[in-house]
Amino acid sequence: MTFEEFLAARLAALLRYATVLACDPHLAEDIVQEVLARAQPRWERIAAADAPEAYVKRMIINELASWRRRKASRVVPLSHEALETVTAPDSDRQAELGERDAMIRRIAQLPVKQRIVIALRFYEGLSDHEIADLIGCRPATVRSHTSRALASLRANFPQDATRIGG
Amino acid sequence: MNDQTIKDAFDAIAATAVSPERVRARIDARARAHRQRRLLLAGAGFATVAAAVGVPMALGEGLGELAPPGFSPPPAEVQPVRVRAVSLMYAPTWLPDGVAERFRAVRFTTVNFTALGGSRSWYPEGSPYSVQVPEGSVTFGIGEQAGEGETAEPVKIGSADGTMWVTDTAFVQWQPAGGPWMTVSVYGTGDDASIALRVARSVAATTATALVTMTSPVTPPGYDDGTALFEVYPTSGGGAQSLTFTSSDGRSAYQLSTSPPESGEQFKAVTRNGLTVYLPGEPADAVGGGVPLTDEQTTAILAAANATAPDLSWVG
């Protein structure tokens, strides 16, 4: 598969993937652009690997982590609309947020490692072992991040009667 | 709240992703300009090999501790450095005022040291060598064809038909009859296009040579009919040099260098003649495609490798 073929087939999915991890479509755009520009000169080697898309996704994860360290940015989108504008809604608007938008807000406020683990589990449908392989840590570390993240997501959901993440 | 709530939230976040069309256009433009600059800067040397052995850092964890350079081969096995002169083939006879040469690379066959191409860079006087090309720089490359920009226009370089295009850098590219592809790039001078044309039109054959001051007599399987790239540039410590070997099929490579690997990268090293020669190892989870050296091969290569102080008489 050439680089052009890979872009044609997978760029849209990679952008969605990066947006989920970053909780910010514009940051995701920058990260995907950065990663693919770096991948292109050595695409022949990447394509020769068993799973080039997995490799690029790993690059995206690591770029996101390093980007956060470099920019110390903290974007907290609050709703679908807020993801476009990246501005915090006022208190009246917050009150109108539905359960889904409240969840988006909680996801966006998670520490980046916890958010990545939760996104890989719920958006990508990966197991603890698969996540551990992808981000380069032990499955126990994944479980720890998952547990903490789910605890944060449950917080202030008084209607929560269902065990999540089980 | 349940698992579906979280999945729905992620689906909603994913739906805000930007259009792939505009990202693709930006990737194409950026990658093209970047590739062209790097090609001209270093051929397939420091940049490419560094990329080949580098892998994304694992989240929250490094690649491991630097391996100590504890390898000590018997001195009796080491052959003295046999300095080889490799032709620079072509050279510009005109350059803008205020630039000084900061980088040289020559590519050659490992069988008989026949020149295949190379790269030379001139930076503004007073600018040290760096991988990032500073403004006001000129680079001349031989043997590599950079992809043309979309706005390329035809130009004449002597009797050869060439093209010129401008991104943040002006490029002039041509191939004389029976000769290799050649490219001049000029960046950040304020008059890049006209300077690039004038430099290109001044290029002539030269009898000048580059001295290859690093040797590695051991040839691993697959490298019998390969190529090598010797690179050298001045540093505050007297100069850095590297020798990159590419296998006959072009898929595998390894590099001997007097520059320490980046932190976290595994390597072996040996010190001779006051110079330490490093051989980085390929991390186990690096992208496949080439054939990595075995531990025995890296040991044998370093046991026979040798280097002497580089020739920097050309530094402006």
TrEMBL record, chain A:
Pfam families: Sigma70_r2 (PF04542), Sigma70_r4_2 (PF08281)
UniProt keyword terms in alphabetical order: DNA-binding, Sigma factor, Transcription, Transcription regulation
Segments forming domain RNA polymerase sigma factor 70 region 4 type: 101-153
GO function terms (MF aspect): DNA binding; sigma factor activity
GO biological process: DNA-templated transcription initiation
Residue ranges annotated for the RNA polymerase sigma-70 region domain, each copy included: 11-72
SUPFAM superfamilies: Sigma2 domain of RNA polymerase sigma factors (SSF88946), Sigma3 and sigma4 domains of RNA polymerase sigma factors (SSF88659)
InterPro entries (alphabetical): RNA_pol_sigma-70-like, RNA_pol_sigma-70_dom, RNA_pol_sigma-E_actinobac, RNA_pol_sigma70_r2, RNA_pol_sigma70_r4_t2, RNA_pol_sigma_r2, RNA_pol_sigma_r3/r4-like, WH-like_DNA-bd_sf
Keyword Zinc found: no
Family to which the UniProt record says this protein belongs: Belongs to the sigma-70 factor family. ECF subfamily.
PANTHER family cross-referenced by the UniProt entry: ECF RNA POLYMERASE SIGMA FACTOR SIGM (PTHR43133:SF50), RNA POLYMERASE ECF-TYPE SIGMA FACTO (PTHR43133)
NCBIfam families cross-referenced by the UniProt entry: SigE-fam_strep, sigma70-ECF
Name assigned to this protein: RNA polymerase sigma-70 factor (Sigma-E family)
Automatic annotation (TrEMBL), chain B:
Keywords, alphabetical: Membrane, Transmembrane, Transmembrane helix
Membrane-crossing residue ranges in chain numbering: 39-59
Record carries keyword Membrane: yes
Protein name, UniProt field: Uncharacterized protein
Highest taxon listed in the record's lineage: Bacteria
